[in-house]
Amino acid sequence: MLLRASKFSGQRSNQSAVILPPGNDIRSAIAILVCSALYAPGSSAAENTTPATAPSADTLVIDANTHADSNSTTPQNSGHAYAVKTTTAGTGLTLTPRDVPQSVSVITKQRIQDQNLQSVGAVLDNTVGVTSETTDSERTGYYSRGFYINNYSFDGIPTNVEEAWNFGDSTEDTAIYDRIEVVRGAAGLLTGAGNPSASVNMVRKHADSKTWTGNISGTYGSWNNRRTVLDVQGPLSESGKVRGRVIAGYQDKDSYLDRYNNRKKFIYATVDADITDNTTLSVGYDYQQSRVKGATWGGIPTWYSNGDLTHYSRSFNPAPDWTHYNVDSKKVFANLSHQFDNGWNLRATGTHAETDFDSKLMYLSGFPDATTGVGATGYGGWYVGKRKVDSVDVIANGPFNLLGRQHELIGGVSYSRQNNQYSASTTLFSASDVGNLDAWDGSMADANWSDLTPYSTETIRQKAVYSAARFSLADPLSLIVGARYTQWSAEYNGVYSGEASYGKNNISPYAGLIYDINDTWSAYVSYTSIFQPQDHQTVDGKFLDPITGKSYEAGVKSDWYNGNLTASVAVFRTEEDNLGQTDGNNYVEGSSQQAYYAAQGTVSKGVEFEINGAVTDNLKMTFGGTTYSATDNTGADITSNMPRTTFKLFSSYRLPQLQALTLGGGVRWQNRTYQDTTAPSGDAVRIYQGSYALVDLFTRYQVTPKLSAQLNINNLFDKTYETNLSDYIVYGEPRNASLSLNYSF
């Protein structure tokens, strides 16, 4: 008995873009461009957009990678749909979203284009079940089910993100990605160490066209936002078995914050080759650079010294003119895949990534006088960091027969080494240095900084073996079981912690049961797990055991119209134990380092749902919501600054009577949040952000078969809201708009 619906099927859209002739001049030019990008960082350009000619009203267009296969782990092109046919998210098995026994959201390139989501962070802000806290202009933390998300993967290769340091992971440009997959709950089977929140996987675009094609887009928007993106791909050999693709872009934008500017450039190049009929090789290079002036650290003081709330404008920028935040990211990757005649696939992936940041910032603290505006002080920090990640992953997957039925199996080994280095120099600014905040213009003199000194260094290694199998127990019933065995080790050397090393082995089991109620609906239950080592020590100097996360989930899923529309409803419970908590005023024996103890019994539980895809031939939408509670072992709320109930809706509608015109928009709503903090009097005070909704609109018009224009408006009603609750304020973006032109060739 064959497993249901694991084979991808679809129809490639009939694009009417002008096809350039495969002449030697063009081929040579693109070959030079690809090779230059592979060996030299820096440049500018692009993203893939809607085909030049809109499909007819009675056709559902599902664009598929012609090299994809149901038994392959090769990424599939998400095309022009909101839903995907198959995914490897969560299990590593190539399954329909309905067959994955976890909550999974996939944000495709079409939806990214419609909403003009230019960064990974913007995508997460519009993902069901994900919430955020913006700490300052450069740092935004993302949460799911009450827990911080620290697992980001690139084509399935994970990178662990530290909450305290910002390497710009959430600001990665989306132009180079085909889709972004978010698996909520514990996802230790594929990611290794992490929190039981969610995992975010960015799937890169590839050179999958055997004819020359491309597009160029230009955007101008609020606060002088200028952006240009170029995407070109085509054959590098006469047969088309070797193909190249280059995506490059440049963006220069100001902000609603005074004196803020961000210049970004990126280039991505990949070569995909069919070495044989069954063997493919993909190599690529990705470089992204960001240069920020007027970067903030923290925000605007919440209180005056008399205890009254401050009333600074949303445009108030507490950063001096000399502040900056610069990030450079370089990634090189290779992927070799072979399809055996018996249906098995073997894939080997390797990547090397280096990310550097250099930031000089000032944190504004204290309480200004309500009359004179004087009283705030500043803490200056010059921080430099470097992160290197080397990873190798080898995975095999395919079908096997047992007891007269066909099943699926994957097995893999992985190794990763991540080295993080930080240096620092700090200084203090007095109230007289800062001056009157009511007359603040950022012209405060820079400090005489001391030389950078090493702050901390850490090297983290993970060696893992993992496997999962999908057993067809009966025609309507399947069981997925798996586990990951991880050897985790770390070496630390910090100013406060000194030299230390720590290692831990862990097994992360996975189990899911799926029952097909009928051809449309399935029910499932699952258990997933994950672990997160921590560098906290007890009073006697012992490292705390890793934080453990366990997720229990049950729900129903459905798909209609050959998988073009999907829906899911789930109830979940996540348990987190061994979370490090400060041990009063106790210190680690023989040091001045704060001691910790392991707290047990943190629980998050709730319900979520999502509908995603093509409702009709002309209407695409995504609509979902989450409501949950999250408490520690005393019953107190954790992460109370995260909304407990959220709803997110976005839709696009192509007018049947005017096929060239598409209209759309969305709403994001969240309930009230709060945070306990300390007022100038020293009293404990609870501050709130009331519930609010943000409304976005967009429209696109196909001017000619090759040229389209798109208008996006965000925060239509100019809602004022705070994205951080503490002793300082960070406001969300006011109303803004952008106009984009896209030309296909």
TrEMBL record:
Gene3D superfamilies: TonB-dependent receptor, beta-barrel domain, TonB-dependent receptor, plug domain. Residues 309-716 form the TonB-dependent receptor-like beta-barrel domain. GO terms for cellular component: cell outer membrane. Residues 97-197 form the TonB-dependent receptor plug domain. GO terms for molecular function: siderophore uptake transmembrane transporter activity; signaling receptor activity. InterPro entries: Beta-barrel_TonB, Beta-barrel_TonB_sf, Plug_dom, Plug_dom_sf, TonB-dep_rcpt-like, TonB_rcpt_CS, TonB_sidphr_rcpt. Its main location: membrane. A motif (TonB C-terminal box) lies at residues 728-745. GO terms for biological process: siderophore transport. Keywords: Cell outer membrane, Ion transport, Iron, Iron transport, Membrane, Receptor, Signal, TonB box, Transmembrane, Transmembrane beta strand, Transport. NCBIfam families: PRK10003.1, TonB-siderophor. Belongs to the TonB-dependent receptor family. This is Ferric-rhodotorulic acid/ferric-coprogen receptor FhuE. The gene is fhuE.
